[in-house]
């Protein structure tokens, strides 16, 4: 089983906002100037880039990312991608992992808002990240302070080379004011803007996987903690995309068979102000939204009658007893 390693140098925006360049959410590459050595779609792979010694294809060394050929004329290479949904950019990670003698010396990013169709010759592009220097085999984190929402990005590399991964952290744009107040929305879904505030452990699987769409594809596609060898239980705190009144809850232990939690509970509250650290402390005393429920392996658990009437909430704390893995969590709610 793989151990999840988090970059300790990653800035807060990588944990606060979803990666809207994730193909699991619907992002995709559309076009590029050249991807002779490594096809552009690999750059959006949600898994960390890998290096496989001795692996070659018909064009040369196989690389896990987007790689253009050596440019023998003036100009630079570029790649256009469609984000999973319109969003206000908060930061990016241009990752050159495993590209050492073939990384681009510099890169820049442009954004466009194209609500329907794809960018064309008339599309207006806005610079969101001026040219920055790149190093080989490195993460390059850059905060972005652009208030406009974008649907498409164009990554420019100067003059050529390879980028292993591009992560685009953004606040999804939601017109909650126009949303039907009687409809139910999964207000912790990543694509709606829900995010993990804190968790005590995510040794084998990231807590953010709980908020992904669909069911987990395997046991690695969920939140899984280490085996607890001391009293207590594991937990994670999740912020809703919008204050809501919870009507239905789904806890899915898909693929977790010998390692699902014995039971779970959910606490909740409407919070304003404070910090993520103070939220963690306060969450211990939040009222119960879902009393402790026994769980089954590899099973979708649905709760409605069991939900306690707390009114509008902004945050939840999922407790699992004592440890284990949960694939997905849904919080179907009415907008408050």
UniProtKB/TrEMBL annotation:
Alphabetical list of SUPFAM superfamilies matching this protein: Galactose-binding domain-like
Pfam families: Allantoicase
GO biological process: allantoin catabolic process; purine nucleobase metabolic process
Reaction catalysed by this enzyme: allantoate + H2O = (S)-ureidoglycolate + urea
Protein name, UniProt field: Probable allantoicase
Residue intervals of the Allantoicase domain: 26-172, 193-334
InterPro entries reported in the protein's UniProt record: Allantoicase, Allantoicase_dom, Galactose-bd-like_sf
NCBIfam families reported in the protein's UniProt record: allantoicase (TIGR02961)
Family: Belongs to the allantoicase family.
UniProt entry keywords in alphabetical sequence: Hydrolase, Purine metabolism
Pathway: Nitrogen metabolism; (S)-allantoin degradation; (S)-ureidoglycolate from allantoate (aminidohydrolase route): step 1/1
Listed GO MF terms: allantoicase activity
